[in-house]
Design brief:
- With 378 residues, the chain is mostly beta strands.
- The protein has 5 helices and 24 strands.
- The protein has helices at 22-25, 92-96, 141-148, 185-188, 240-243; strands at residues 34-37, 42-44, 62-63, 77-82, 88-91, 101-108, 131-140, 156-166, 176-184, 193-198, 201-202, 212-214, 227-233, 247-250, 257-260, 267-272, 278-279, 285-292, 298-304, 312-313, 315-316, 326-332, 338-348, 373-377.
- The strands form 6 sheets. It has a 5-stranded mixed β-sheet with strand order 5-4-13-8-9. Strands 6, 7, 10, 11 and 12 form a 5-stranded antiparallel β-sheet that branches.
- β1 (34-37) and β2 form a beta hairpin.
- The radius of gyration is 21 Å and the shape is globular.
- The structure holds the ligand Nc1nc2c(c(=O)[nH]1)N[C@H]1C(S)=C(S)[C@@H](COP(=O)(O)O)O[C@H]1N2 and molybdenum atom.
Length: 378
């Protein structure tokens, strides 16, 4: 397996698209994606190549549970059914005639950073690159729901994708299922977008052509691709991708109870230097990265160069859309040779910050505890 580690110790790692040295790290590296799985396709962004606020479409990570469905746009229909007054089938042209909106939103896979967990957990072994930030254009889900007329009995809205297949690991339902996730009516009627464009271009097949959901402030699993059906239900949905997969143990009312993963956890990541990178002693190095949270701006990112003993505030990039990540950088002049353990920790406008320890109730998801990144000063 390839890795996005940018080791500058000779021989250099091959073909990862990573910046192999501090000086070259300053240059934008457009390195292609890292294959985590080829079928179904799962591709990771080289986070070390981060070079702007917007992730290019061709650099955006891809997370698929089933083969990518081929959906001809002119035959495609969006069905709206269940607890609605007027069940609908909306054609592509009808959808495009609706009011268009854009949102800049960061999508992070709930399993991003999983490779750093000990003991090892199941699932795609993402490093830091199952995250990206894009401008999404489409129509508000709320407007589509309004057209169908949600009944007062509706509690949740299930989004179903056009992709399907069999689950391999038990516990599993028999036969083929579709990828599906539900949203509470309050979120569905708020800021969820049904998007047809990513950074001004039609969605690619891998990212959900012709239509996908964007659920700002939530982990990626909610952003259902190849959207084909919207079903309003009176009962909570307990589909595979929110009860077996993408669920965690919550302890709010006594014994642990399995609940669907929803909101993004506040988190900062270092793009450069990369793991095991060699950083020159006595010279200034621009450490940089991104930080994000759920429904609150990032207000502070701190960095430590000595495994958490001393912390410094970094410089934050422009504050833009509340659902978008914030870039940050810090000028570092290492004066001591040897190994240095870098750490970052973000705080958002709601005062939430990153934990120092792993919460075992999260299983292989929501990795936002402060992690160390070792580099070598030479
Ligand atoms: N229909 C469908 N939608 C899906 C998925 C999927 O497998 N099928 N994967 C989800 C997960 S887990 C993530 S993290 C995001 C990733 O979106 P991307 O592939 O555009 O980066 O899509 C989500 N939407
Ligand atoms: Mo995901």
């Amino acid at each position: 397996m390839n890795s996005s580690h940018s080791s500058a110790h000779p021989p250099a790692s091959s073909g990862t698209g990573q910046a192999p040295s501090a000086s070259r790290a300053e240059r934008p590296v457009h390195g292609g994606l890292i294959v985590r799985q080829s079928e179904p396709v799962n591709l990771e962004s080289p986070f070390g190549a981060l070079d702007g606020f917007i992730t290019r479409n061709e650099d955006f990570f891809v997370r698929c549970h089933f083969p990518i469905p081929e959906i001809p746009r002119d035959q495609w229909r969006l069905k709206i059914r269940g607890e609605v007054q007027r069940p609908l089938e909306i054609s592509w042209d009808e959808l495009r005639a609706m009011r268009e909106t854009s949102v800049t939103a960061t999508i992070e896979c709930a399993g991003n950073g999983r490779v750093f967990l000990t003991p090892k957990v199941d699932g795609a072994q993402w490093e830091r690159g199952a995250v990206g930030n894009a401008v999404w254009t489409g129509v508000r889900l709320a407007e589509v729901l309004q057209r169908a007329g949600l009944k007062a009995s509706a509690r949740e809205v299930i989004l179903t994708g056009g992709d399907r297949g069999e689950i391999e690991l038990a516990p599993r339902p028999g036969g083929e299922i579709h990828y599906a996730r539900s949203l509470p009516v309050a979120k569905a009627s708020d800021d969820v977008l049904l998007a047809w464009e990513m950074n001004g271009q039609d969605l690619t097949p891998a990212h959900g052509f012709p239509l996908r959901a964007i659920v700002p402030g939530w982990y990626g699993m909610a952003a259902v691709k190849w959207l084909s059906e919207i079903t309003a239900t009176a009962e909570p949905f307990h589909g595979y991708y929110q009860s077996v997969d993408y669920a965690y143990w919550q302890r709010e009312s006594g014994e642990p109870s399995l609940v669907p993963i929803t909101a993004l956890q506040v988190k900062a990541q270092i793009a450069r230097p990369g793991p095991a990178e060699v950083v020159p002693v006595g010279q200034s190095y621009r450490v940089c990265g991104a930080a994000w949270s759920s429904e609150a701006a990032i207000v502070r990112v701190e960095i430590s160069m000595d495994a958490g003993r001393n912390w410094h505030e970094v410089r934050l990039g422009e504050k833009t859309d509340p659902h978008a990540w914030r870039l940050w950088d810090f000028s570092w002049r290492p004066d001591q040779r040897g190994r240095a353990t870098l750490m970052v920790r973000a705080t958002d406008a709601k005062g939430r910050t990153q934990p120092t320890r792993r919460d075992a109730d999260r299983g292989g998801y929501m990795v936002n505890e402060v992690l160390g990144l070792d580099v070598f000063v030479e």
